[in-house]
Amino acid sequence: MTVEPQGAPAPDRGLSRFALAMAGLMLRYRLLFVVIGAGLFSAVVLPKLLVRRSYTAEASFVAQDRQQAGGGALASLAAQFGVAIPGGTTAESPAFYAALVTTREILSEVVLTHYPVQVKAVNGGTLVQLLEAPGSTPAEQVDATVRAIRKSMAVNTSRETGTISVGVRSTNPQLAALIVQRILDLVNDFNVNRRKSQAGEERRFVAARLDSSRIELARAEEELSAFLRRNRQIPQHLQFESDRLQRAVALRQQLHSSLAQAFEQARINEARDVAVITVIEPPVVPVVPNTRRIVVTTLRVMVAALALGMLVGLILDFF
Predict the structure, then answer these.
(1) If you average pLDDT over every residue of the chain, what do you get?
(2) Which stretch of DSSP H or E encloses residue 142?
(3) More exposed terminus of the chain, fewer Cβ within 10 Å: N or C?
(4) C-beta separation of 149 from 167 below 8 A
(5) Is the separation of the CB atoms in 181 and 60 below 8 Å?
(6) Are the beta carbons of 104 and 146 closer than 8 angstroms?
């Protein structure tokens, strides 16, 4: 009879029996484990091996603040007369541009742009032609291409720095870089056109206020002139009225001068055609393909096949 030494840990008989049972299960249903593993490998890993390697081109940019036609001093001065003047600087949040680059308005222009690259047998063309988008009508083909490009995009924002990063994945590295550059150009064009439109609205608004200010200034000057004509020698008790009229004329003159400056600034902004986004990292043609994570995926498939095979084997043993 064998006597175990005192103080030695007892063997985990339950764990040993479980391991032996699982080993026996795998031995009995080894063909089942092979079939399940092969099926999962064909469904998950094999497509990654057969598909062409993809490349991702990336770029990052930040939006510039927009200086409006009316400054803070003009807005403060106009408020004394009950006039609202646009003023200050405005800048959209990074989330706005993250949503903008994936809108249909931007992506429709992207897919209809001609790209001088060869993809398969097509030597240059629009993305609709290069990607051979499915669809019986041009509208359906454009829609399918827009959805495909949107799926291949990765957009990230940074609240700390305000930067927006755009990445596009494609099997052709040169095409990926050209698509990202086209997106940046369209975002800048969108902002330039919007800035011109807003500057035009501001110019028309300030022009209307400038005309009103000119009339009000002339009225104030006429009142002061009539007062001085009636009172060539201003008595002491009318000095306060004279000072009030002179102050009103001075304020009207200052407001009129500021409105004239704002009007000229609005005209300049309306005609300005400069970039309103700063590209921090321009897109370059990627040289290293995206990782396919074949090893990690294969290990996961093996674990999943083992677990599924054990489950099916236990069910078969139960029945």
Answers:
(1) 75
(2) helix 138-152
(3) N
(4) no
(5) no
(6) yes
